[in-house]
Amino acid sequence: MALKAAAVLLIAATLWCYSEGNNDGAIDCCLSTSNAPIPYKILKSYRDQSVEEGCTIPAIVFITSNQMALCAPPKAKWVKKLKSKLDRKSKKKSKKPSKKPSKKGSRKSQ
């Protein structure tokens, strides 16, 4: 059983490496979008997809905490709200707490 699992993993890894090496510069594009709202709590980030970058449709690509890409229509109201929430979340994370100067005993010259 373990040998069979190892063989399957080896084949999968080989195919994955082959597909990664032979994408001919193709980018990963959404081919369609879903109007079903996505729960905020599963989202990690998002990116914009545009026709200018070679994709056939504009879309917002939401990335989940499990690294799944979910495609949404960029003009939908719920999509704009999710983008705003994620922007606020990333701004909070980028702000680093200020470090106060240490008030340890200073030495006076004698």
TrEMBL record:
PROSITE patterns: SMALL_CYTOKINES_CC. The keyword Transcription does not apply. GO terms for cellular component: extracellular space; nucleosome. GO terms for biological process: immune response; inflammatory response; nucleosome assembly. Keywords: Chemotaxis, Cytokine, Disulfide bond, Inflammatory response, Secreted, Signal. It is found in: Secreted. Belongs to the intercrine beta (chemokine CC) family. This is C-C motif chemokine.
